[in-house]
Amino acid sequence: MEPSLDPLFNPEAVAVIGASRNPGTIGYQIVDNLVSHGYQGVVYPVNPYARAIHSLPAYPSISEVPGPVDLAVVVVPKEFVLKVVDECGDQGVKAVVVISAGFREVGGEGRGREEVLLEIVRRHGMRLVGPNCMGVMNTSPAVRMNATFAPTMPPAGATSFLSQSGALGVTILDYAAEYGIGIRQFVSIGNKPDVSGNDLLEYWEDDEGTRLILMYLESFGNPKNFIPLARRISRKKPIAVVKSGRTAAGARAASSHTGALVGTDLAIDSILAQCGVLRAESIEELFDLAMAFEDLQTPAGNRVAIVTNAGGPGIIIADTCESAGLDVVELAPKTQARLRGIFPAEASVRNPVDMIASATGESYEVALRIVLDDPRVDAAIAAFVPPLGVKQADIAASIVAAVEGRREKPVLAVLMGREGLPQGVAELNAAGIPAYRFPESAARALAAMHQHRSWADRPLLEPEVFEVDRVAVEKILDGVEDSGRTQLTEIEALQVFRAYGIPTIPFRVANSEEEAIESAEEVGFPVVLKVLSPDVVHKTDAGGVQVDLRSAEEVAKAYRSIMESVQKYHQAAQISGVIVETYEKKGREVIIGMSSDSRYGPILMFGLGGIYVEALRDVAFRVHPVTRVDAEEMIRAIRGLPLLEGVRGEPGVDLDTLSEVIQRVSQLVGDHDRIEEMDLNPFLAVESGGMAVDARMALRSE
After folding, report:
1. What global pTM score does this model have?
2. More confident residue, 418 or 501
């Protein structure tokens, strides 16, 4: 067990080493923040050239501080950090925050300096935040510690925040103060050689004062630890993340479609969703979510009512809600009748409820009370565009009055326009009603609340264990490795999948035109011919596939064409003949794949298959192991789901079979960790069942 993080957040005494009398320095700002914001413990400025700093006695070194110190904040040039931290350890300091830069982030000597710093910290049994960070904060009234160089201290609250960027940390705290969001604890973790995001998640999991966790991340540190941690904690407390690096620049070259897509942002989105973590597109959106979670009870369902005095905002809110998974439900006839008896004929009462521009504060109060009484409604959004003669503050007061005594259904407000906005927002915030300036912000925040509720309510399942032939697969993989290969032939890959109960298309292997014709007659026309070679991964690119062959003559001609094309494409390719398969046109082509990622472990992918996988990128990912719920969510996450469910009178495909195949692939990669990547592409999904038509698999190269 690592030492506790308590000395970081609840120290009884803080030493600022590198404290300064110059107001323009970080060393002064940290001392000033501790004193000005009412830190409840003892502050010891350490500076060999000052007698007093900020009216506090200063000490030449940590060894001359008269009392015990729990936390030391180090703000000295990088050349002196190691000596100072070592002295802290000798004096029994329990935790250090190193603000100083010049470590791993600059490479070279800095990397070595950070390794020595970590060795010193570990030797003394201390905890370390930083280096290259902006500090830590605890707003609890019993502590009131601002050990950062940020000029702003937000109000106390129940939101704990981790920032991997010190520069953004200042902006984050400014946002929190402006939006009135109460911060419980704040940490800028810097280079994080010791205290990481995972450590903080574990600490905040058990912190009764933390009800919401916000994170700005540039990397996950140890994702294999983050995933199970986040999955467990997000059931108790919402976790919302801004994760930078949304481009595909990090995608690595891979032999499978799955491997090529794992490095993209699509995978990060899916992994966070699998963990129950809410992903925000920006810091501003992160605080939009925080405003909702801080004050409101999560909605019981996804049905939302919209009350507005203008059509435009109502339409924007409705569109954003629908696209985010909320249902702008038609109000009950009784509700519509009550509204119709109050508002003019020009008003719309179905949902959104558009009371038109003549609506007053009283109109908002009455309309909100009526829609919140509707049993079809789980939450409401009230939007206001200021016409002449109606003030924001009056509307805000009416919304507050309407919500009084009705907290079981969350209400969010949108106040547009500038005049009277601060007063209106302040009144709403004081009443625990989040107020937004733009319609989309409120809709996304409400959708995030519903998303978290759905995650917390989903069943806890263990991965299903199927009866399989592990021994047969081990023999196949051993044979591949004994032959000096990492790439399985398609036949070998199909045999592996068969051993794990995954249905495959009937096939034969042919080594001549005559055998190809004989095989075609055995499986039945029409047929497909595909080159069989461990050196040709993408057969279509090499001219190694011929489809819809309906006679012996066509099969013979296709065989010759494949041999000629593949030899031109790859002169040194080892060709073992062709695979002859039945040509199936019915059904939907999907892809089920896996790529082993060094950060996350095996990642499974599902999506629409065929030759357009990487072009359309209509895919979903999950990290191994995959449960039945995970597999079902993968299937329902793709945009092409309607094609699988059946459109224009066509029957849908067997989604249960697809779910089971995904789970069997998950078991396969869990049982055999030497598999690097694989694709079932296409897997032909039909009305009842399905089959793998093409397969590729590669082993890890040592």
Report:
1. 0.85
2. 501
